[in-house]
Structure formats: structure tokens, C-alpha cells
Amino acid sequence: MLRIEVVENINHTPGLQLAVEGHAELLQAGLSDDVAMVHWDHKAVIAFVDRQDPGEAGAAVGPYTEAVGVISFGHLEWARQFDIYIGYVRRPHRHRGVYTALWKRLVEEAQKRGVAIIQGTTDVKNAPMRAVAKTLGRTEQAVVLHFRVPPAEAPGA
Q1: Which range has the worst mean pLDDT, 59-63, 64-68, 106-110, 137-141?
Q2: CA distances from 65 to 5, 21, 49, 62, 68 (A)
Q3: Given CA atoms 108, 113, 119, 120 in this order, what sign does their dihedral have?
Q4: Would 14 be classed as within a structural domain?
């Protein structure tokens, strides 16, 4: 069974590890800038699934809960906006509606708090995320232009 929770602070929750895993995966794939995307003051929507631990030699140990997905976000109250920082679902749980459930819960939270816009960015090469976002009714509104400033030449060089 899938359970979704909203937490006011990602620290000391399984959402923190998931957000870090997600960012590491994006970095490895070349789909993120090398800047920290997880911060102490993020809020989060976290997906949990209930599991049965088979224990050793197949002897049932009992149920446990596993965190499998997260959307971390900030609430800019003055702008009536949520900013998504990282959305991530562990690979074995993808294509099973986990991200959609996280998104729906985030929208409910936005409605509850009077938020008008949910905004997020993704690398232009991240086609899977862009496709998922489109199916959820999100639209691409802007292009972010980056310029890496080269180091200054040393004096006398």
C-alpha cells in the first residue's frame, strides 16, 4: 500500500536520503549542475510503501515501511508559490504511480495553503522528467541561460 506524508522539514526524515540519492543520480547522469539541491529548510512530500520482510530462509519477520519517493520543495509565501527542488522515485518503484501520487498530494497541499503556482526546473536533457511533468499538466514557461565564468587570468600572465 502507498502512503504519502507531508513534512515541514526534510531533516531527520527518510526524505532527506531520497533527495540526496536523487541528486546524486542526476549528477552522475549529467542532468544537474554541481550545486547543492538539498537544504536544511526544505519541506517534503514523501511516499512510503508497506512491505513484508521475508527474513532469513523465507521465514516472515513482519511488515515494515520503506520510503520510495520524494518531492522536496520550498514555500515562498510572499509569492504564493511552491518551488520544487528535487523529485525522485527509486528505480524499482518507477512507472507505478508513485510520482503521480506525490504530485497530487503536493497540489492538495498547495490548495490548502493558498498557493497559486508550483514551479520547478529540470535539465533540458532530462527527457523522462519533462515527459512526466507534461502528463501532470505542467508547462514549460522559460529557458534558463547559464554562463560559466572563466577564471581570471593571473596578473602578469
Answers
A1: 59-63
A2: 13, 18, 6, 10, 9
A3: negative
A4: yes
